[in-house]
Amino acid sequence: MKFLKKALFYLLGVGLGTMVVVFMFGDRDDIQCTYFPNDRVLYDIRGKQVVIPADIQRQLDESSLDSADIHDMLTGGKVDFEKTDRGMDSCKTYWIDLNRKEKLSFAMEWQNCDSVATALELKKL
Predict the structure, then answer these.
(1) Strand pairing class (92-98; 106-112)
(2) Per-residue confidence at 88, pLDDT binned at 50, 70, 90?
(3) Coil, strand or helix at 35
(4) Which residues contact 94 (CB under 8 A, 6 or more apart)?
């Protein structure tokens, strides 16, 4: 009987503590764990104003790609660091690939400046 009483108190305490933590801190969707270089680059570009020039937008429209595909690229894409030019002082250029089975796979070159990320080139894979 002593064990059941201790287990009940323990579970009651853990349950109340969990509810207090959830109530105080709420849903923390804004926390990102960007430990790896690929994640850091994508997180940095997502946090800036994204500019897509008219010629790139025309190529996207011809390929039936839209803003959701760009969002997918900037959340789950893979940065090709072999093609990347990070030696520039103010703006760096990155190639980001999005390989998918069900839809068109493509790669884009991005120029990542201080407050703006600009699409420079689009390639179908």
Answers:
(1) antiparallel
(2) low
(3) coil
(4) 41, 45, 79, 80, 84, 109, 110, 112
